[in-house]
């Protein structure tokens, strides 16, 4: 009788494998100060530095009457996502596969999908925290208006972060080793930053270039964030571009990903 009653208590206190993996991945994430800095701190610090330059806070006609700081808030938000999805996550997942960790985990109660899910979840949360910090810094130090269409802004953020993590998962799927993952990530990183408006706000691009950029996920996301910030619902074309890229990248990642 006593043994029968003690058994359920023991099973309920036993840690779940998924939670253990998430806890371990969280600890490993914060043991990499480079990833934490570039994903969670750098975009905010970049916006803060721009805010201390007087000319960056003055309205400019060439970018629709916005100041440079206002134009760079969505850019900084997207930059954190690009850092997380392209530079931080793929080398970790590819390294796990290269060292046989995922293969060995398939013989234990902890499934390899738990590691992949933990990595995607951690980098998604880190990106969203960075987005909140960036918006707060812009508001507090540079008096940048908060998003006028909050629901549209949140929807765009969620689509953008899922899209960039799907792209990172595809890079992880196609890269046979960590060095290749880093090389591919870097080759995609700079065009992604250009599309997001890091080098030049989309409002300043020639019409043809802007139209091309808006068909890319980060260009569409930047435009949708700008529209939501201004109080308008994001253009359905921009949201559709983001959703389509997310579906295509996710399907490709699932199709070609290998655990060993």
UniProtKB/TrEMBL annotation:
Sequence intervals crossing the membrane: 36-53, 73-93, 114-138, 150-171, 183-202, 236-257
Keywords: Antibiotic resistance, Cell membrane, Membrane, Transmembrane, Transmembrane helix, Transport
Membrane protein topology class: Multi-pass membrane protein
InterPro entries: ABC-2_transporter (IPR052902), ABC2_TM (IPR013525), ABC2_TM_bact-type (IPR047817), ABC_2_transport (IPR000412)
Cellular location(s): Cell membrane; Membrane
KW Glycoprotein (keyword) present: no
Residue span, ABC transmembrane type-2 domain: 34-260
Domain of life of the source: Bacteria
Chief place of localization: membrane
Family membership noted in the UniProt record: Belongs to the ABC-2 integral membrane protein family.
Name of this chain's protein: Transport permease protein
């Amino acid at each position: 009788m006593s043994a029968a009653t003690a058994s359920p208590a023991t099973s309920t206190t036993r840690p779940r494998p998924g939670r253990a993996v998430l806890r371990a991945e969280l600890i490993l994430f914060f043991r990499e100060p480079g990833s934490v800095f570039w994903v969670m701190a750098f975009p905010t610090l970049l916006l803060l530095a721009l805010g201390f330059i007087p000319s960056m806070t003055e309205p400019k006609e060439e970018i629709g009457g916005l100041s440079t700081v206002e134009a760079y808030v969505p850019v900084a938000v997207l930059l954190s996502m690009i850092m997380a999805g392209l530079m931080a996550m793929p080398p970790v997942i590819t390294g796990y596969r290269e060292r046989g960790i995922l293969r060995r985990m398939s013989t234990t109660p902890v499934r390899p999908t738990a590691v992949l899910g933990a990595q995607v979840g951690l980098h998604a949360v880190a990106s969203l925290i960075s987005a909140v910090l960036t918006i707060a810094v812009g508001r507090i130090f540079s008096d940048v208006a908060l998003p006028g269409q909050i629901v549209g802004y949140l929807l765009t953020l969620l689509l953008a972060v899922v899209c960039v993590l799907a792209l990172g998962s595809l890079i992880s799927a196609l890269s046979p080793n960590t060095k290749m993952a880093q090389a591919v990530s870097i080759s995609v990183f700079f065009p992604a930053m250009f599309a997001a408006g890091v080098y030049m706000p989309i409002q300043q691009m020639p019409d043809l270039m802007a139209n091309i950029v808006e068909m890319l996920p980060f260009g569409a996301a930047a435009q949708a964030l700008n529209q939501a910030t201004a109080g308008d619902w994001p253009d359905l074309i921009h949201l559709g571009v983001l959703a389509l890229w997310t579906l295509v990248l996710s399907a490709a990642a699932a199709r070609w990903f290998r655990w060993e």
